[in-house]
Amino acid sequence: MKPKGDGIVRVGRQTQGRKGKGVTVVSGVPLAGAELELLATELKRRCGSGGTVRDGSIEIQGDHRDLLVAELGKRGWTVRRSGG
């Protein structure tokens, strides 16, 4: 089962509720369950930082927007930066 979405993967940055520490949030990825966990692991390794999967989106510690947009684009998805 594919999660609902418009087919666009969005990469943004959030600091709310994290004591000023920023995380890069990847949402809209058309994967679920173990596949999403595997992608998160690969992206965390690529960025060299920690992170988690929460509510169907991937959160990676730090600001890695440019790297993630390029990496997800290579995988064949339509990727857009969102937020500031």
User: Between the first and last Cα atoms, what is the distance in angstroms?
Assistant: 32 Å
Q: How much of the residues is beta strand, in percent? A: 25-35%
Mean of the pLDDT scores? 90
CATH architecture tag: 2-Layer Sandwich
Tell me what you see in this structure.
With 84 residues, the protein is an alpha+beta fold. It has one domain: Translation Initiation Factor Eif1, CATH 3.30.780. It contains two helices and five strands. The longest helix is centred in the middle third of the chain and has 14 residues, at 34-47.
Name the features.
Translation Initiation Factor Eif1; single chain; 5 strands; 84 residues; alpha+beta; 29% helix
Please write out the topology:
Elements: E1 8-14, E2 23-27, H1 34-47, E3 51-54, E4 57-61, H2 65-74, E5 78-81
Parallel strand pairs: 1-5
Antiparallel strand pairs: 1-2, 2-4, 3-4
Short summary of the structure?
The chain has 84 residues and is an alpha+beta fold.
